[in-house]
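#dry-run=false #mode=assembly
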Amino acid sequence: MDPVGRRHDLAEAVWRVVRRDGLDGASVRAVAREAGLSMGSLRHYFGTQSELLVFAMRLVIDRIEQRVASLRVPDDPRRAAETVLRELLPLDDERRAENEVWLAFTARALVDPALRALRDEGYDLLRDACLGWVRLLVGPERAPVDVDVETDRLFALLDGLAVHAAMRPAHCSPELLTTVLSRHLDDLATR
Amino acid sequence: MDPVGRRHDLAEAVWRVVRRDGLDGASVRAVAREAGLSMGSLRHYFGTQSELLVFAMRLVIDRIEQRVASLRVPDDPRRAAETVLRELLPLDDERRAENEVWLAFTARALVDPALRALRDEGYDLLRDACLGWVRLLVGPERAPVDVDVETDRLFALLDGLAVHAAMRPAHCSPELLTTVLSRHLDDLATR
DNA sequence: GAGCAAGTAGCACGATTGTGCTAGAACCCG
DNA sequence: CGGGTTCTAGCACAATCGTGCTACTTGCTC
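#status=ok
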C-alpha cells in the first residue's frame, strides 16, 4: 500500500484506540495491534511514539479544515456563519470522533510540549474564524473592543458545547447544540 | 498529624503533580515523593491508586462548593449571578489550580469509570446553578424551552471560558473572562 | 535472475508501573 | 512501663512501556 496512506491508516488506528482507552492507552503496542501490524512494522512508518501521536493530532486539524473548505456556503452572512460553525460542532459520529480525539490531545498538550504547537495552531484557526464571523455579523458600527469580547464569547461557547457533547452525549443532542448556536448567532446579528 | 488532614495533604500533592506532569504523571511513587512520604506510607492512607485519585477529584468539587457557599451574595439578581458565577472562573491561582486539575480528571473520566460519577456530579451541580440563575434573570414570561436553551448556553460558555483559560492563559486575562461573563449576563437580563 | 530497497516481524533491554507483603518505629492508653 | 494500634519504610513481583536491533520476506529495477 501507499506509504502515506499507511500512515493515515495508522493515525486512524490511534484515533480508535484513543476513543476507546484514552491517550494513555495509545501505547505503541496497542496501536500496532489495532492496525493489525507488528510493533517493528509500525516503527518503520513512525520512528518514535511522539512522531505517531503528532501525526494523528495533525490529522484532526487537517480533516476539519478540509471539511470546512469543501462546504457550500450561502451568501447571507447569518446563514453562512451558521453553516460553517455548525460544521465544527460534534453533530454526527465523524465529528464526534474528531472532537473526542482533539480533546484528548489538547488535554495532554497541557504537559507535553510536542503537542502544544498543534493545539495552539488549532485554537488560533478557530479563534480567527470566530473573529471573522463576528465582524461580519455585528457590522462596522460596533466598537472594536466589543468585537474582541464577542469573538471570545463565541469562541468559548463553541468549545464549551464541544466539551459538553463529549462529556455528556446523552444531554447534548444535535438539536440542542444547533439550537444554542443558532440562538447565539441571532443575538449577535440583531444587536 | 490528623489522618483526615493527611489525606488532604496527599490529595493536594496529587494536584501539584497533576498540574506539573498531568494525570499520567500522578503515579503512586510520584505523589509519595511530592508529599515527602514513602510509597508504603501513602498506601496506608489510600489502599489503591484509584482511591487516591477519586479522593483528589472529589476535593475539587468540595473546595468549589465550599468557596461558593461562603460567598456574600448581593440582593440584586443580576449582581448576585455575577458574584457567584465569577467564583467559578479561574481568575486567581487557587481557582486556576482547581480548573486545571478538574480538566485533567474529566478528560480521564472519558475512559475511567471510577471517575465518571464524580464528573457527572460536578457537571450536574454546575448546570443546576446555571438553570437557577437563568430562571431568575430572564423572568417568568420566557418560554420554558428558552430557559433550557439559555441554561445550556450559559453552561457551555462557562466551561468554554474555563477550558480556554487553562489552554491559553496568556490570551485569557481575568479581565477578559469577567468581561465576557458580564456581557453574557447583561444580554440574558435585558432581553 | 541478481541485487538492492522497502516492508514486516519479533526479540531484548532497561525503565517504570501498581500492589502485596514484611518489619521496624512511633505513639497512646491503661 | 507494657502492649497494642497506628504509622512508616522499603523490598519484591509481575506487568507494561518505548525503543534499539537483527533477521526474514516481498517487490521492484537493471
